[in-house]
């Protein structure tokens, strides 16, 4: 039976998340979601089950013009790093979901690291 593209994505996402749960040690998870037009990220505390901070390319105050690009992802990464510091978080695990660590996802992670978030 051939798996659809969506099935393969879901399997990849679960595989990544299960590996993170084994080594998380109570650290929050930096979860990324990328659509064809936008990118968003959440800092999630899995122990309490709540979102500590979030950022998205849809936000007007980030000043993202052409939302579907690497520069927009870098701005979102910088914003989440600032908001994580404000929430008192210095370390997190990067949950790329089922997305490949390349392009916009990589740019977001690099900008978050440059902003002072250890991932």
UniProtKB/TrEMBL annotation:
Molecular function (GO) terms for this protein are: 5S rRNA binding; structural constituent of ribosome
Protein family: Belongs to the universal ribosomal protein uL18 family.
Cited Pfam families = Ribosomal_L18p (PF00861)
Its quaternary structure? Part of the 50S ribosomal subunit; part of the 5S rRNA/L5/L18/L25 subcomplex. Contacts the 5S and 23S rRNAs.
Q: Which gene encodes it?
A: rplR
Q: GO cellular component annotations, sorted alphabetically?
A: cytosolic large ribosomal subunit
Keyword list (alphabetical) reads: Ribonucleoprotein, Ribosomal protein, RNA-binding, rRNA-binding
Explain the purpose of this protein.
This is one of the proteins that bind and probably mediate the attachment of the 5S RNA into the large ribosomal subunit, where it forms part of the central protuberance.
Designated name of the protein: Large ribosomal subunit protein uL18
rRNA-binding is among the record's keywords:
yes
Which GO terms of type biological process are on file?
translation
């Amino acid at each position: 039976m051939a798996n659809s593209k969506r099935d393969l994505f879901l399997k990849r996402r679960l595989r990544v998340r299960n590996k993170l749960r084994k080594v998380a040690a109570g650290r929050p998870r930096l979860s990324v979601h990328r659509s064809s037009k936008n990118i968003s990220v959440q800092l999630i505390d899995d122990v309490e089950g709540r979102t500590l901070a979030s950022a998205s390319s849809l936000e007007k105050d980030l000043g993202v013009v052409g939302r579907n690009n690497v520069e927009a992802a870098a701005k979102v990464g910088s914003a989440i790093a600032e908001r994580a510091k404000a929430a008192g978080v210095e370390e997190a695990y990067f949950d790329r979901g089922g997305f490949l660590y390349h392009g916009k996802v990589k740019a977001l992670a690099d900008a978050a690291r440059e902003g002072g978030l250890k991932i």
